[in-house]
Design a protein that fits this description.
Length: 187
């Protein structure tokens, strides 16, 4: 299990419990227009505090079980106010190639284009390497999500062209491209 709080040069990355359901809901409400364009269709009760309360309970269990890690992203000033500005998460899986992690990330529109998502993802990947022994990462990205593609490429991910995943986004089926990062040869 990785650290529950990680301080980087500009950020505080923190695992949250159900006590933060209101702050998580606030992040999604503030960014509904930007996040909904690329995320799976949400259940009807997604924009309720109870949904996030229950979801955070499951996520924290995944964290303590060692198969899931979500860091909520704060700046030092937003942390003091309890305002989450994004998240980076890792869903740990096994394949015939060994363990790998699917990465997901999101950042409040007001904090984008400052290198903060890169900083959060980069440091999250380092935690996965050091504490979980994971060196293979996968990201499923919509082909028209150019900021996410740029971020993944800046982190060293490459497009694995023959692979894709079908997802329902805003009620429509969309093929997501698979991007891969293998850090085992950079050790």
């Amino acid at each position: 299990m990785g650290p529950s709080v990680l301080r980087t040069e500009n950020l505080i990355l923190q695992v949250e419990t159900e006590a933060s359901a209101g702050a998580v809901l606030d992040l999604y409400k503030r960014n509904r227009g930007i996040f909904d364009r690329f995320e799976p269709t949400r259940p009807k009760d997604f924009f309720t505090k109870d949904f996030h309360y229950q979801h955070l309970i499951r996520e924290y269990k995944g964290y303590t079980d060692g198969d899931f890690l979500r860091y909520f992203i704060y700046t030092p000033s937003s942390h003091a106010k309890g305002k989450i500005i994004g998240s980076v998460n890792f869903n740990i899986k096994n394949s015939n190639l060994g363990p790998y992690a699917e990465i997901g990330y999101k950042l409040d529109l007001l904090y984008q284009n400052r290198g903060l998502a890169y900083e959060a993802c980069y440091n999250g990947i380092k935690v996965m390497e050091e504490y979980y022994g994971i060196h293979l990462f996968a990201a499923h990205i919509a082909p028209n999500n150019y900021p996410s593609i740029r971020l993944a490429q800046n982190l060293g991910f490459f497009l694995n062209s023959p692979e894709s995943l079908k997802a329902n986004v805003n009620g429509y089926d969309m093929l997501l491209d698979l991007y891969i990062l293998d850090t085992s040869d950079t050790q």
